[in-house]
Amino acid sequence: MVYMLDRCPREDSPRLGAMTLHPEPGAVPRARRWFRKFIAPYNPACSVDDCVLMISELVTNAIVHGRSDGPWLVRVEWFREGTSLRVEVHSPGFPANVRLRHPDADDAHGRGLLLVDCIADSWRSGPSRFGGTVVSFVVADAWPA
Predict the structure, then answer these.
(1) What is the maximal distance between C-alpha atoms in the chain?
(2) Interacting residues of 138 by C-beta distance below 8 A, sequence separation 6+
(3) Distance, CA of 37 to CA of 103 (rounded, Å)
(4) What CATH number should be reported for the domain whose range is 3-139?
(5) Are 7 and 17 in contact (CB under 8 A)?
(6) Where is the Histidine kinase/HSP90-like ATPase domain (predicted)?
């Protein structure tokens, strides 16, 4: 199996959905496609395109920088918290390795978190509850009050 989706979260949970992806190139477009599909019924007022861009960047970073001695997965979860949308990307590796870079104009890489920093209302990184690292972003006012 290449991915797993949780399309039916519990009603008492703020989690709207989740997906688990193998760390391969096809994971990024798959994450974009499935997030679009499963966030649509919730009618967010925020830019889904912006969210998809940020998810693309964080899943790419998870695949490129995730580290494990054995087989591993990337997990993406999205939550409604009041009027805000929070998206988390979990991967193996050390939380201390996540940092915002300011690349030179001719650098080919290093802009993913910079994009997230510019678009999201906030973002953070730290230890994942699954082990490894989580990087998350919040879009405030994703739904009307």
Answers:
(1) 48
(2) 81, 84, 85, 86, 120, 121, 122, 123
(3) 33
(4) 3.30.565.10
(5) yes
(6) 23-137
Helix (H, G, I), strand (E, B) or coil at 32: helix
- Residue at token pair 């104009």: 105
Residue 82 falls in which region: left (phi positive, over 0), alpha (psi -120 to 50) or beta: left
Q: pLDDT of 96-120, one tens digit each? A: 676 666 666 666 565 678 889 999 9
Pair of tokens at residue 132? 């490894």
| One-letter amino acid of 136 | S
Q: 46 near 84, Cβ under 8 Å?
A: no
